[in-house]
Amino acid sequence: MAVEYDDSFEECIQRPWLAVSKMRQIDADQPKRQGQLSPDAPNEWALHDTFHYQRGHADVFRDAYRVSRHHPPKKGERLRVVDVGAGAATVAVALGEALGRDKRRRIDYVAFDPNPSMRSLGEQVLEHLDAGFGSGMYIESLEETDFHKGDRLLFSFSYVSHQQAVTLADVDRWASLIKRGIQEVGRAVELMYTTASNIHSIEPKLPMLGEKLDQAGLRRTVEPLSVHLKQRYPETGGRDGRVRWRWRNPQWQVQAERWTLRA
Ligand SMILES: C[S@@+](CC[C@H](N)C(=O)[O-])C[C@H]1O[C@@H](n2cnc3c(N)ncnc32)[C@H](O)[C@@H]1O
Q: Which atom in ligand 1 lies closest to the alpha carbon of residue 170?
């Protein structure tokens, strides 16, 4: 059975967002910002972005995961998902909706986000969602990521590629993390990313990561993923306090790929 996202959304995201003063809501809602979030952004910005975009981003990742050739973890397998730029645990929501409880139990979900408000929101969402993962946690630095021999590994990057706060040093860190992961688990690993295909003013970082990994001599196969989905946003104002989702045209313009990486 899929997780109940609406309950977690109402409790952890909608309620606190509606309690933010109108002035601060307007400040968080600058149209030019378009989901750009630096580590020191005001608290309300993380809440604003999660309120407005998490539903849609989770829809996109869930569909990308479903159409990909990735095999969900079988009995006896452990799948460690390392969610980089996790926001408020968006990939956990997507996997919670894509997989049944048996498969979720075989997942260890590790989330990293440099914005402390996102981390705190994500911890609340993870707890409330109660997805039944083998384990689920946030780490404060990617260096803390633990890998276990024999585990399968999936690195996820949901709507992080166009973040201006991602530096070349971050891309180097991601490449080192992936190389270490391959060495320590002793097998090929996977990476899945989703991002907007219609942002041209910011250089996307995932292609840079791909080049770094190629230069490091890893063998990389790329599976393009095609996602066709209408956008969903929350609509507030219902008297019962329940969220209602509004479907919006046009569809998400998505670029998504799944990579397999081996030494
Ligand atoms: C558009 S949000 C996406 C959040 C979430 N993955 C989702 O799909 O809903 C971008 C996230 O990237 C994070 N971020 C910004 N710079 C980063 C960096 N250098 N490394 C990792 N994450 C970063 C931000 O804190 C923010 O939570």
A: 19
**Does any ligand 1 atom lie closer than 6 A to the CB of residue 37?**
yes
- pLDDT digit string (tens) for 232-246? 999 976 677 789 999
Give the nearest ligand 1 atom to 115 CA.
25
CATH number of the domain at 161, please: 3.40.50.150
Q: Kindly state if the Cβ of 117 falls inside 6 Å of ligand 1.
A: no
Which distant-in-sequence residues (6+ apart) come within 8 Å of 81 by Cβ?
Answer: 91, 95, 107, 108, 109, 110, 154, 155, 156
What is the total count of domains within the chain? 1
- Tens of pLDDT, residues 170-184: 999 999 999 999 999
- How many whole angstroms from 23 Cα to the centroid of ligand 1? 24
Cβ-contact 209, 171 below 8 angstroms: yes
Domain residues for the domain of 142 are: 5-262
* Mean pLDDT for all residues in the chain: 96
